[in-house]
Amino acid sequence: METKQSHSPNNFSIAVDYDHKATEFHPFSLSSPHMRAFHLAWLSLFSCFFSTFAIPPLLEVIRKDLNLTQTDIGRAGIASFIGSIFSRLVMGLACDVFGPRVASATLSLFTAPIVLSTSLVSSAKGFILVRFLIGFCLANFVASQFWMSSMFSGCVVGLANGFAAGWAIVGSGMTQLAMPLVYTLFTSCFNIPSSISWRIAFIFPAIFQAATAILVLVYGQDLPDGNYERKTTIKQSENFGSVLLNGLKDYRGWILGLTYGFCFGVELTTDNIIAEYFYERFHVNIEMAGAIAASFGLANCVSRPVGGIISDKMGKTFGMRGRLWSLWAVQTVAGLMCVLLGRVNTIGVSVVVMACFSLFVQAASGLTFGIVPFVSKR
Asked: Each residue of 140-198: pLDDT tens digit?
């Protein structure tokens, strides 16, 4: 790849290393290109999480309207998860070839109409298919982390990744709160039938996602010194096969993938079922179930960045061992909280345990991505 030069070292408003990657992180700055990329990355991913988890808080309403069985709902959840995994594998290649800006925006623009098409679903098969395709939205997570690793140096990349992902995943909580309120607004204030109200509600996440994609294309920049220029050659194709093979043979990548499945994978699963869980087990109304479920995702605003901070601090003090042991400790506590959540029988205690669980499982995700950039420079 080549880049279009747009900055000289003296033009950066933030301290950079020899690769012009930022060695400082100022989350409330909009300086270009580093901090602007940060804000575009998390906002675009926020919209994707908002879209992906817009269905679960309205699941009870959708189930009654489409006559879905518990098996249908379970299959739809699995389909969403599979779509997320498949698309992430492809997104890694897309970022290498086209750069994170184009890859991210293209995916968002492609999936926004799919989000909108949720309002047209009329059968269980259609519902499962839509959930599978909407799962593709979460591949934007790869583009976001790729972008942060391209813009920030190793001394702050864990922090940048933690904040970008943490603020973005708040979208999974906001949608749990917002979608039931939008649905209630149409049914209560405008007297629109329930079967139509939940369909209209999906217009909003679709528009939001498309708007953020356009912002990324217009204002984003792939690298500190410019954007990717695609230059495909036979040699590059051969290099890709070699790099892929080396990656597949690296046992550390497989271990981190498994570890991430037990923190972020568990978090995604919880986001899909937590509103329905409180609705059915404790018989709260749909708005209250959404509010409780929202608190699980909203915790990412703090917990995931804290994971990144802990990783960087432990890395500076104890090296890579510090990053690894802190991940193990935090994820172990998350596992214990998850077990406890399934055993408590009162709503008050259940909410408290869920809040503790969310803090630790999300911090573990931040800690994981404090390690990822150091696995292989290639």
From this structure: 999 998 999 899 997 888 788 878 988 998 999 899 999 999 999 999 989 999 999 99
Q: By the 8 A CB rule, do 340 and 191 touch?
A: no
Q: What angle do CA 63, 66, 70 make, to 5 degrees?
A: 40
- As a dihedral over the C-alpha atoms of residue 285, residue 289, residue 294, residue 295, rounded to 10 degrees, the angle is 110
Classify residue 241 as exposed, middle or buried by CB count within 10 Å of its CB (0-12, 13-18, 19+).
Answer: exposed
CB 233 within 8 Å of CB 358: no
Record the pTM.
0.84
Gap between the Cα atoms of 134 and 129, Å rounded: 9
Report whether the peptide linkage leading into residue 113 is cis, meaning its omega lies within 30 degrees of zero.
Answer: no
* DSSP 8-state code for residue 264: I
Alpha helix ranges (H) inside the chain: 34-52, 59-66, 70-98, 100-117, 124-134, 140-151, 157-184, 194-201, 203-219, 234-249, 251-260, 266-281, 286-298, 300-318, 320-341, 347-368
Distances 327 to 256, 267, 373 between C-alpha atoms, Å: 11, 16, 15
370 backbone dihedrals φ, ψ, rounded to 5°: -80, -15
Q: What value does the CA radius of gyration of the chain take, rounded to a whole number of Å?
A: 21
